[in-house]
Amino acid sequence: MLREYVKYTSLNVLGMLGLSCYILADTYFVAKGLGSSGLAALNLAIPVYSFIHGTGLMLGMGGATWFSIFKSQGAKERKDQVFSHTVVLACSFAVLFVAAGLTASYGLTDLLGADKMVFEMTQTYLKTLLLFAPAFLANDLLLCFVRNDGAPQLAMAAMLGGSFSNIILDYVFIFLFQMGIFGAVFATGLAPIISLAILSPFFWCQKNSFHLLKSTSVEKFRMQWHMAAQILAGGIPSLVAELSSGIVIIVFNVIILSLLGNTGVAAYGVVANLSLVVISVFTGIAQGIQPIVSKYYGMGEPKKRQTIFRYAVFTVAAVSILIYLGMSVGAEQVTAVFNSEGNQELQAIAVKGIRLYFTGVAFAGFNMVSAIYFTSTDQATPANLISLLRGFVLIVPLAFLLSWLFGMTGLWLTFPLTELLVAIIGGEKLKNQFQCN
């Protein structure tokens, strides 16, 4: 079991780290090429990326979880039904995102709080990102299914290939072609297309055990809404995990704009983007255990799936210590990389933020692994509870309360306090479940 755990989680963590370079590369190159205004515009647009990516993960993780369960039970027709329904759902969301890009980018930019200085750049980023949504959704969906179909190496290669191409294209479009903010988002939009190209041999060589249904009977059609609901319910924790980053960024941006203006938002952009990379490590661990836990759930092996969960918790604890030590000691140097203008105010805000904000990484990792564990064992209620508490219910009111009481210090501490409270709740639910088994 340990070898299987290491194989899936290590490959997935590497892939997710590469995937997170979408935003990190944009942050670095935008900061170098466009300064603090470009950095503020990018930070205002990040929540939309989180929502698109979160929707893709919701469909991919929700569908792939049921695919893995049916695969372990030898239910071939059910596997194809799950995949077909997931594809239909992805197409529906893709239409909505593209329509929003064509008709609502101006309103979304205004809603996210962009002022005159950064409005045009923010709108350009948002509109282009939404038009590339079908590629993002298709990539997220197929990565999850390919991973659950016994090819985690290929999934990792696709994620890394797309991400590294994003970094190269960022440099080419922003600096060589002088395409500005459009160059950054265009590079990001091309990355999932390159990832899909890397995945394509898996289907050409017919290694996949999931297929689109060629025909649908009346009985299967009647099952459609029930199966769609199962897919969505199973993927909600993944959506909320991504959305929580976007929601937190929106709320923090609103509060910071009132406290410190665009310089504060740019400083928070450094912290937020570093957070996306850190969270991607825990996402990789959580998504890595999902195929194994779902398999053992389908086989009726509770002890084995609990052992896998304990491996994941130990990994989260060890990684969290290393991350916090690295962030705390290297806060000055890390911030300086993104502070191309040498803005001392931005530097001071971001350094303090890094050292306070990242005290919550261990609790965040535990919560993400717990939510995916519940999802993988067909327990949507506790999974959704954990995800909603950390993503919306607790963090939003705490952000306003703590910032009102303690200013920026309180705002930085919102994330660790929220994750700690949710970890206590999630720990109790896990304890009760483990005792029952």
Describe the structure.
The chain is mainly α and 437 residues long. It has one domain (2-436). It is 89% helix and 0% strand. It is built from 16 helices and no strands. The protein has helices at 2-72, 76-103, 105-111, 119-131, 133-148, 152-176, 180-199, 201-204, 218-259, 261-299, 302-329, 331-338, 344-357, 361-376, 380-393, 395-436. The longest helix has 71 residues, at 2-72. The radius of gyration is 21 Å and the shape is globular. It starts with a helix and ends with a helix. The mean pLDDT is 86.
Keywords, please?
437 residues, mainly alpha, 89% helix
How would you describe the oligomerization state of the chains in this entry? single chain
Number of E-state strands? 0
Helix content: over 70%
In DSSP terms (H or I, runs of 4 or more residues), the helix count works out at 16
User: What are the low-pLDDT stretches, counting only 5+ consecutive residues below 50?
Assistant: none
Binned strand content: under 5%
Mean pLDDT value = 86
**What would you call the shape?**
globular
Rg over alpha carbons: 21 Å
How many structural domains does the protein architecture include? 1
Alpha-beta content class:
mainly alpha
State the end-to-end CA separation.
Answer: 19 Å
